[in-house]
Amino acid sequence: MGSSRVEESYDRMSEFKAFDDTKAGVKGLVDSGITEVPQIFILPPKNRAEKCETHFVFPVIDLEGINEDPIKHKEIVDKVRDASEKWGFFQVVNHGIPISVLDKTLQGTREFFEQDTEVKKQYYTRDTRKKVIYTSNLDLYKPSVPAASWRDTIFCFVAPNPPSPQEFPTPCGEVLMDYSKDVMKLGFSLLELLSEGLGLNRSYLKDYMDCFHLGCSCNYYPPCPQPELTMGIIQHTDIGFVTVLVQDDIGGLQVLHQNQWVDVPPTPASLVVNIGDFLQLLSNDKYVSVEHRAISNKVGSRMSVACFFGESPWQSSKLYGPITELLSEDNPPKYRSTTVKDHTSYLYNRGLDGTSALSPYKI
């Protein structure tokens, strides 16, 4: 029994390595004309996508007039708080980022993934010390990961120390840097609304951060011959304070709401916002960091760009626990304190295994 398990894991690892060595990613598999999903991508039945619920209406918040009218401002704070408590997710429209910038961001990153493999190969790496990483499945070799995800990714940290233009692969460096400036403004406005929603000073969460950084993940999900067997990315929560995501019109993002999977409809000119683990911990479960996933599609390649607002795991040594001002006899702390570095290394060593990332800190 023992030896067959060793052989099984050895085969899986050698298949992972063979896939990794091509440096062509999932896009390379699709280009080669495969008609079946390779074994390393096939998920156990419990992790696969089942039918989605359609009777829920995903929250959409209009940010127009947010700084001009105090009544409108309060309404928006209430809507953001309500969505962050009940869903952990919402869409924003009239957010101030021109649709031309959103389109250029998606188009520029798509062009990178769709260029010749030989050109892309030179950027392929698993070296997490690099400021820009193009790879497929950063957690590929982690034993707890049930299967590889059907997606390729460019990951970079764009603030506070952005990569130099030379470090970015063409043709997406300039568009990402332009987009990150706009998304940073929006992210800080969202943190202000979220602070007010907790009954705190508007700049509380922004000031609370020790060493702010912004990570950016550009995700390319090629068409899949057997989408029911695999996933663009399995269920997970996000690590930081808040995530802002732009997606194209193909769709595939799903959110776990009241124990049911709900589609996030691709709405033109909108951005998807969700609460991260650290904000759930800081708010002592008032805001929720909710599990979400991306399903695979049979037709068309999906593109999304996610920006993660959080602390730098390399620079911040601050201990994070539930915010003191929110605690009382009736609301005691539900988490022990941790550092961003510890939480990041815990997640990095574990990989995406479909379970909650906050459970180790529960009191």
TrEMBL record:
<dbReference type="GO" id="GO:0046872">
    <property type="term" value="F:metal ion binding"/>
</dbReference>
<protein>
    <recommendedName>
        <fullName>Fe2OG dioxygenase domain-containing protein</fullName>
    </recommendedName>
</protein>
<keyword id="KW-0408">Iron</keyword>
<comment type="similarity">
    <text>Belongs to the iron/ascorbate-dependent oxidoreductase family.</text>
</comment>
<dbReference type="InterPro" id="IPR005123">
    <property type="entry name" value="Oxoglu/Fe-dep_dioxygenase_dom"/>
</dbReference>
<dbReference type="Pfam" id="PF03171">
    <property type="entry name" value="2OG-FeII_Oxy"/>
</dbReference>
<dbReference type="InterPro" id="IPR027443">
    <property type="entry name" value="IPNS-like_sf"/>
</dbReference>
<keyword id="KW-0847">Vitamin C</keyword>
<feature type="domain" description="Fe2OG dioxygenase">
    <location>
        <begin position="212"/>
        <end position="312"/>
    </location>
</feature>
<dbReference type="GO" id="GO:0031418">
    <property type="term" value="F:L-ascorbic acid binding"/>
</dbReference>
<keyword id="KW-0479">Metal-binding</keyword>
<dbReference type="InterPro" id="IPR026992">
    <property type="entry name" value="DIOX_N"/>
</dbReference>
<dbReference type="GO" id="GO:0009805">
    <property type="term" value="P:coumarin biosynthetic process"/>
</dbReference>
<dbReference type="GO" id="GO:0016706">
    <property type="term" value="F:2-oxoglutarate-dependent dioxygenase activity"/>
</dbReference>
<keyword id="KW-0560">Oxidoreductase</keyword>
<dbReference type="Pfam" id="PF14226">
    <property type="entry name" value="DIOX_N"/>
</dbReference>
<dbReference type="InterPro" id="IPR044861">
    <property type="entry name" value="IPNS-like_FE2OG_OXY"/>
</dbReference>
<dbReference type="GO" id="GO:0002238">
    <property type="term" value="P:response to molecule of fungal origin"/>
</dbReference>
